Amino acid sequence: MLQRLFPSARRDFKSLSEQEILALAISSEEDDARIYLAYADGLAEDYPNSAKIFEEMAEEETTHRARLIDLHKKRFGDHIPLIRREHVRGYYERKPDWLVRPLGIEKVRAQAAIMEAQAHRFYLRAAQQCEDADTRKLLGELALAEAGHQTTAEELEAKHLPEEVREAEDQVERRQFILTYVQPGLAGLMDGSVSTLAPIFATAFATQDPWTTFLVGLAASVGAGISMGFTEVASDDGVISGRGSPIKRGLATGIMTAVGGLGHALPYLIPHFWTATVIAMIVVVIELWAIAWIQKRWMETPWSRAIFQVVLGGALVFAAGMAIGNA
User: Which of 18, 179, 225, 243 makes an SS bond possible with 258, Cβ 3.0 to 4.6 Å?
Assistant: First the structure.
């Protein structure tokens, strides 16, 4: 009755017949095989050895699907009901690969582990709900197969990913992360933190008005963020350089530029001028230390060189702002 009143409502898993459970398993195995093949396709260029692992996992899912279809033909004939994950309430969902791109190697490995664990739980529950001996036997075997996929994945990794190959792929992943997020974000943070020092502190010492100083800092930070973001997007489409999506780089640059400027502009929301100024100076020191740390952590810049560059640049700009503000 409810199905007639609400045709789009999902079915409870307990309400499924054995034929519907087999149909759901068939469609799930088909979807998983296609996802693994999509992962393999997405990884093939940068991680060819890992791509082979997902190709073999897709082949295994295809084998499971064939066994399920054979059992369905034996018990219920050739017509397989159209039932999919989205038709069953509480059933696990899968994100298509185009929603999780770019396919970071660690992200894909983690997603594959989740997929196998969910499939294992499904087959255990499905076997408990079926009464036919052959169906229970097959579902139980598939549950064991899904549980053993962790071992299978490790065997495939040993086959296709010797230690030196895995290290090389991890280096490619790290390099891509640096090019797409760290490098543009660092450039934005440096620009936002250093370039806004002069206008903010010049305004502060010229007017000694916290609110005016905050408005100037807000305008400078937001304006610089928008400018830097669009400049990064327009400078390189990432196709030849391999730096990744220009939109992602632009967002990283723009957001970090605005953050860098707002860090020492926000203290001027405090109405007492000298209190706000002292806090803003402390924030500047923290910002400059963060820049030096990022350079050391991700760009492998020696501490002495990173600190010298950041402190010297920041001190010169800060001095210029104070000098202009007191003129």
Answer: 225
| Structural domains of the chain, ranges and CATH numbers in brackets | 2-161 (1.20.1260.10), 167-325 (no CATH)
Q: In whole angstroms, how far apart are CA 29 and each of 61, 105, 119, 265, 288?
A: 6, 22, 9, 55, 52
Please determine, for residue 233, whether its predicted confidence score (pLDDT) is greater than 80: yes
Q: What is the largest CA-CA distance in the chain?
A: 93
The reported pTM is 0.51
d(CA 311, CA 326): 22
Residues 73-88: what's their mean pLDDT?
Answer: 87
Structure token pair of residue 21: 């459970």
Q: Do residues 279 and 267 make contact, with C-beta atoms less than 8 angstroms apart?
A: yes
Q: What is the DSSP string of 191-204?
A: HHHHHTHHHHHHHH
pLDDT band at 246 (very low <50, low <70, confident <90, very high): confident
Do 105 and 173 form a contact (C-beta atoms < 8 A)? yes
Residue 294 in tokens: 């990022």
**CA 48 to each of CA 43, 45, 140, 208, 224: distance values in angstroms, whole numbers, following the listed order:** 6, 6, 33, 61, 40
